[in-house]
Amino acid sequence: MNSPLSSIVILGTGSYLPERIVTNDDMAQIVETSDEWIQARTGIRQRRFAAEGENTSHMASAAARRAIEDAGIDPTEIDLILVATMTPDMPFPSTACLVQSQLGLPQCTAFDIQAACTGYVYGLNIATSMLQSGNYNKALVVGAEKLSGILDFEDRSTCVLFGDGAGAAVLGCSDVSGVGMIGGIGGADGSNPEILCQPAGGSAIPPGTDSLAARQHFLKMNGKEIFKQAVRVMGQASTDLLEKTAVDADDLALIIPHQANLRIIDSLTKRLGIPVDNVFINLQDYGNTSAASVGIALDEARHSGRIKTGDLTLLVAFGAGLTWGATMVKW
Ligand SMILES: CC(C)(COP(=O)(O)OP(=O)(O)OC[C@H]1O[C@@H](n2cnc3c(N)ncnc32)[C@H](O)[C@@H]1OP(=O)(O)O)[C@@H](O)C(=O)NCCC(=O)NCCS
Asked: Per-residue pLDDT tens for 170-204?
């Protein structure tokens, strides 16, 4: 058992992107759009779509396998599995249970987190608290999505924005104080759920011929409203966490924001007054991968040398709900 005073640290990360690359020009074959429009409004150049039969759990397991290898731990040490997703293989059982089985992990606590694009950041914060409780030793946190399965390829305002993939981290304890997960916050406002949702498929509108005909089983979004809210809550979550952890924005080596839209990220950097070089951006390659986005970005940032020992890194996300969250990591 951990001492409740141990630091909680990220021991390893991993990510997985499906092989199939779909460019903006490819999207223009499906809906009336153009590479120029998509790049100018979002910064996205291409995204990855999962293969037929490649489910969220398969991508989650692939990313998790890499994170476990990177952490250099024995997989039998994992006693907590959290999978953040809004595109689970099925409503139940949880994708976390499927990952447990696919990787042959111990029969430990395993559950899904549904906080849309904020899910991975929520997951890191939840895992940190559960490890701090002393009741768990090693946590696997995964963000994974197969959004291509819920996109409406007749709606050009949404289908060009999203992609598939998975990002994972293994968290454990360290006797070194003042490192690792040094603070986290989260929030939610459920007063306008319809601005970003999948209306049908749950108890409100069970799947049926009417809901299929009305295309209610696909993702629906009020892009302008989400944009406004995203700018507000990403900025607020970041400044709140900086205050809570007594960190100055100038001392951040890197910000890893949710990869939804370059213009949203630009407004965040302006609000925090930090140079754009201190922000990790890979949305041009993958689009918005929802709960997977921050996990993939964190893994790429680590393995491309953008994070060094002693660096302070702020991870921040927003998503449907509305949800938002941030976490501060000292490496
Ligand atoms: C979706 C988004 C890119 C749209 O950009 P926008 O500047 O708000 O664009 P608008 O919705 O005002 O649309 C402008 C025009 O482009 C058109 N348009 C929409 N999608 C298009 C596409 N893919 N290609 C070409 N034209 C498109 C619209 O029909 C509209 O045409 P009109 O003026 O003739 O009516 C932007 O609102 C956004 O990024 N919102 C946040 C989305 C997000 O982050 N979601 C994930 C949350 S986790």
From this structure: 999 999 999 999 999 999 999 999 999 999 999 99
Q: Where do the DSSP E strands lie in the chain?
A: 7-16, 20-23, 46-49, 80-84, 109-113, 139-145, 165-174, 180-188, 196-197, 220-221, 254-257, 312-319, 323-330
Domains of the chain: 7-177 (3.40.47.10), 181-330 (3.40.47.10)
Kindly give the number of the ligand 1 atom that is closest to the alpha carbon of 31: 23
DSSP annotation of 141: E
- For residues 181 and 7, what is the distance between their CA atoms, to the nearest angstrom? 7
Dihedral sign from CA coordinates of 98, 104, 105, 106: positive
DSSP, collapsed to helix, strand or coil, labels residue 125 as helix
Residue 100 has pLDDT above 60, yes or no: yes
Query: What residues flank ligand 1, with Cβ below 6 Å?
Result: 33, 37-38, 41-42, 117, 156-157, 160, 196, 221, 223-224, 226-227, 230, 260-261, 288, 319
| Confidence (pLDDT) at 6 | 78
Residue given tokens 């949880």 in the structure block = 94
Three-state SS at 77: helix
At 61 the pLDDT is: 98
Q: How confident is the model at residue 1 (pLDDT cuts 50, 70, 90)?
A: low
- pLDDT tens, residue by residue, 104-114: 999 999 999 99
20, 320, 42: which is closest to 157 by C-alpha? 42
Note the Cα 273 to chain centre separation in Å.
24
**Phi-psi sector, 125: left (phi>0), alpha (psi -120 to 50), beta:** alpha
